């Protein structure tokens, strides 16, 4: 079988024939059964099986890129350019590619070399090479080897660790082998966290590997912006948000990234690297991974906010999105009791009705999302695996008690199955977290694709249908909150993103932080508080079988942010917000104590001779800060605090109110 490439117009690229390619090197391209996807569809889910339009006059096929070798890291196959069809002759079943690199190929090869910390190739030397593969080797084959070549580090920016000394040739093979064997960053931390030198090597390899893939994506999607926000702690995650302003290519890029890592390591990026790629959500994305990429980038901007009365709908949907995070990590009976205590403490009947509706909406969204995820996960499980999960899944005493009081019949069976479904999902997550992550990523990207389609509709409408445009903006906020339910370790709401990601993590100085915080509304701080509570409950659940001390320091990051939300709401917006019962001293002082004692233990800034000593130190710290020594007591105290905080804040907010009837009609008439 021969690969036939249709002649392409420089302005209107046509699709190639539906024949896939698989190769072991740039000069060994073999046909296979999988079909190529036409360039117009912009799909990169499996780069081995697809072909993408790179630039006018070229077909850009991307194939899995990394392989170890005796000479260190050698890319198995880099993204490669097919010359124009008239320059390709066919012999037998294998096409012959041109033997010298084009200027575009040289540029691409040097971009990859730069990301890997290799010296850039002069044009004269690169033109003598036969392939991009050769051009991206540590020592180009066409030139005499450079003895004892000292590798340069990757481009510097505020996303890089200044002490990074990862060496491609020396460190690549053993690290990759270790990761392929362990298949989990959690296992990496368990095995190497006590060996700081090794842990830093793994940390630097992860960043180098991920940044190399990002560099490949920049060539596929010129102008792609990438930003990492987080800690430089070797045990921390390395999450990246990307944006391709004015298009949905950021979603397609994430599909490709996830596929490539899974093909290389057998699991999702979030499993093997604790790295998740997110599509641009509420905030504009500003490059901080490769400063040299800025020249090709368009300026990004924050998510468009709805106006014309639709802002209330957007605010209500964001409030619900934050509450969904809480609901996800509460049992049904626990959730119902918590909601009743909040709602019953509201004195105004109209406000009480609205707030109950918000919590009920959050419960409904959670039920639907969990049901969809469970269904997707079960499709990839064998019958014995499903039977095993069903046998070991049981309801708690509280749930059984509630069900026992229901009348017999279909309704009772439905409620039981609904509650068991949530338990099944939790059990599967415990046994096979990577499968749940894989399906979660797919569902997240499906919803982000829908959002990008709606944003494209808004761009096409322009100023022609203002009511429809504003309704779609409000709907985008709602769907974005739902999409983030599936995004690993992501904040669901605009408030949490603006408060923590932009204000706490992103501000470069106190003045900039003050500007960001003053721009927020009270409901943003409320959303952030409620999401910190949800993540705090998530950690309590995740470490449920661990000693109290370990649970205390593992959950301390979100406990710290919880008190920070209280303190900064009071500092910047509601200056007369009454003290909470839990505040034996001001919330900002409690936050500082948690950060300096418990978060410090979590980050490894405090040294201990044993795990028992470490856990006891955390117990002692928690006793001194909040006066509790057990996880159960801590949970009760924090939930009580959350109830009180929500009542006090919601009673003073005006934005969370029911939109007018005409606005509601216009909304449902115009959404997609």
Concise overview:
With 672 residues, this protein is mainly alpha-helical. 55% of the residues lie in helices and 7% in strands.
Q: What does it look like?
A:
The protein is mainly α and 672 residues long. It folds into four domains: 20-135, no CATH class; 168-296, Beta Polymerase, domain 2 (2-Layer Sandwich); 305-489, no CATH class; 522-654. It has 25 helices and twelve strands. The chain has helices at 103-115, 123-126, 132-135, 168-182, 185-192, 196-220, 249-265, 269-272, 311-328, 332-344, 349-379, 383-392, 397-404, 410-431, 433-461, 466-486, 494-505, 510-519, 522-542, 548-554, 556-572, 587-603, 611-626, 631-650, 661-670, and strands spanning 20-25, 28-32, 52-53, 59-61, 66-69, 72-75, 80-82, 89-91, 94-96, 225-228, 240-243, 277-279. The strands form five sheets. The chain has a three-stranded antiparallel sheet, with no helix packed on it. A three-stranded mixed sheet has the order 10-11-12, with helices on one face. A two-stranded antiparallel sheet has the order 1-2. A hairpin with a 5-residue loop joins strand 3 (52-53) and strand 4. Helix 11 packs across helix 15 (433-461). The longest helix is centred in the middle third of the chain and has 31 residues, at 349-379. It is globular. It starts with 19 loop residues before the first strand and ends with a helix. Mean pLDDT is 79; it is low at 1-99 and 140-161.
